[in-house]
UniProtKB/TrEMBL annotation:
Residues 212-239, 269-288 are annotated as: Disordered. It comes from the Eukaryota. It comes from Hymenochirus curtipes. One of its GO terms (biological process) is anterograde dendritic transport of messenger ribonucleoprotein complex. InterPro entries: DRBM-containing_protein, dsRBD_dom, STAU2_DSRM_3, STAU2_DSRM_4. One of its GO terms (molecular function) is double-stranded RNA binding. Transmembrane segments: none annotated. Keywords: RNA-binding. Residues 36-103, 136-204 form the DRBM domain. This is Putative double-stranded rna-binding protein staufen 2. It holds the Pfam family dsrm.
Length: 288
């Protein structure tokens, strides 16, 4: 184990001290000129995987003029430093061991292999005609515009017509300089149809038929809910027109009537019972 004898350490005020520290730095360490000797020792030990330890081995002198000796061990290299404080002794020990560490051969440069990550062309996928066939047309059109980094679609209620219970809404959508319209029994359905019309106009394929059926089922449900709210009829109760009601009553009256049951009053019941249970006396049995 290499052991460096303790030599009189130069004072920090000595002009030759910076010269020594500069001499132990190689050309590759010019960027570490602002780092302390202790930091450089820690970096070298970390890069070369060497164990490092600092230890105060001696303390002498009166309380107002103490002297400390610190030993540093870096792998097989040992050095000592002396000073009137622990910090100064540690720094001088690090400066001494750096002179020996600078004599070590340089570490081989290992180039890290570059990682090439293949990124998916999201814009190309989203711009294909088949993209988003299983999506809602409104969301599908918005995502396509975001992929193109263009302005999002703008929807405007173009017209509203029809009677109160049979209203028809016309919604207009604008994408850039292109416009398309869609109709429906409510604003939501009209907006969906407008987005679907715009997708077809831009060259995209129509939505999935399953989704279209599901959308129609949802539209019918919304239409039923709207009618129930307007008429005030609770859900599950069928509202019949007067003509239908009369036909149902007429068909009901045509059925075979049940036998009529007559009810007797209490007085009639008494008369009937008395006549039923009375016995007639024959003339032959009349007493003489």
């Amino acid at each position: 184990m290499a052991h460096i004898k303790a030599q009189p350490s130069p004072s920090l005020c000595d002009p030759s001290f910076p010269v020594i520290t500069e001499a132990i730095r190689g050309p590759e360490e010019d960027k570490d000129a602002n780092k302390s000797e202790i930091s450089l020792v820690f970096e070298i030990s970390l890069k070369r995987n060497l164990p490092l330890s600092f230890e105060v081995i001696k303390e002498s002198g009166p309380p107002h003029m103490k002297s400390f000796v610190t030993r540093v061990t870096v792998g097989d290299f040992i050095a000592e430093g002396e000073g009137n404080s622990k910090k100064l002794a540690k720094r001088r020990a690090a400066a001494t061991v750096l002179q020996e560490l600078s004599k070590l051969p340089p570490l081989p440069v290992i180039e890290k292999p570059r990682l090439y990550i293949k990124r998916r062309p999201k814009t190309i996928i989203k711009a294909s005609p088949e993209y988003g066939q299983g999506m809602n047309p409104i969301s599908r059109l918005a995502q396509i515009q975001q992929a193109k980094k263009e302005k999002e679609p703008e929807y405007v209620l173009f017209s509203e017509r029809g009677i109160q219970r049979r209203r028809e809404f016309i919604m207009q959508v604008e994408v850039g300089e292109e416009t398309a319209t869609g109709t429906g029994p409510n604003k939501k359905t009209a907006k969906r149809n407008a987005a679907e019309a715009m997708l077809l106009h831009l060259g995209y394929k129509a939505s999935s038929p399953v989704l279209e059926k599901a959308g129609k089922r949802g539209e019918n449900q919304e239409w039923d809910d709207q009618n129930s709210d307007q008429t005030g009829t609770p859900k599950g109760i069928l509202h019949l027109s007067p003509d239908v009601y009369q036909e149902m009553e007429a068909s009901r009256n045509k059925t075979v009537p049940a036998p009529a049951v007559g009810y007797l009053s209490s007085k009639e019941m008494n008369q009937t019972s008395s006549s039923f249970f009375s016995t007639s006396v024959s003339p032959s049995c009349t007493p003489a």
